[in-house]
Amino acid sequence: MAETLVELAAVAAECTRCELSKGRTNVVFGSGDRDARVMFIGEGPGEQEDLQGLPFVGRSGQLLTQLLGEIGLERDDVYIANVVKCRPPGNRDPRPDEIDACKGYLKEQLRLIDPVVVVTLGNFSSKLLLRTTTGITRLRGTAYPWWHRWLVPTFHPAAALRGNPKVLAAMREDLQRVADLLEQGPPEEEPTTATPGDESADDSDTEQLGLFG
Ligand code: URA
After folding, report:
1. Sign of CA dihedral 210, 112, 84, 173
2. Can you tell me which atom of ligand 1 is nearest the CA of 60?
3. Domain boundaries, the chain
4. Ligand 1, closest atom to CA 43?
5. pLDDT tens digit string along 58-107?
6. Which of 25, 28, 31, 43 to mutate to test the pocket of ligand 1 (most atoms within 8 A of CB)?
7. Between the N and C ends of the chain, which has fewer C-beta atoms within 10 Å?
8. What pLDDT is recorded for position 186?
9. Amino acid 192: pLDDT
10. What residues does ligand 1 touch, defined as CB less than 6 Å away?
């Protein structure tokens, strides 16, 4: 087990645990403050991210930076990562075996950074971390106690860039919720979602992804 994020990033930089390693230019491990109180989790690197080795540096990233600014945060104040660290070809969804091979990195990032709030960006990471088949439109709008933190699911910035003003408004609302939770601190009650050994949290579709199961 790595003791620091730097050590973990060095391990990830050499990773060949899945097929995605064959097509990558760079491993996109994550970026930002290693002591961040809020961590954003996207799906996987796109073309620009693969080329630069940094998450959310394309158009989606620009919008994310803008929305962060609206709640008084800069990119360096937060930590940004993805479920998978290497670009899936043609930006397809990561496959279960790829997620499985990569999930240890995300798990360790969460342990080492220990954020108060986790923001999942879009359907993919929201459904995976909350272990549900419910879509983002229904999931968002609330904060979930999750492993002694808050998890706030919101739309992926790419969805807002498609031009629906309601999506952008919803993202602003969700980020305001994040700002409020940072004031408030971690949840006091026990987590209700995906607790260790909690069979009731299982559902066959997502259990096989078992990110934290
Ligand atoms: N989309 C993602 O999910 N992650 C990135 O890093 C960039 C775009």
Report:
1. positive
2. 8
3. 5-189
4. 3
5. 999 999 999 999 999 999 999 999 999 999 999 999 999 999 999 999 99
6. 43
7. N
8. 97
9. 56
10. 42-46, 49, 55-56, 58, 60, 82
Expressed in angstroms and rounded, the spacing between residue 199 Cα and the centre of ligand 1 is 31
Ligand 1 geometric centre to CA of 81 (Å): 8
Q: Two tokens at 67?
A: 């929305």
Model pLDDT for residues 120-162, shown as the tens digit of each residue: 999 999 999 999 999 999 999 999 999 999 999 999 999 999 9
What pTM does this model have? 0.91
Provide the pLDDT confidence category of residue 191 given band limits of 50, 70 and 90. low
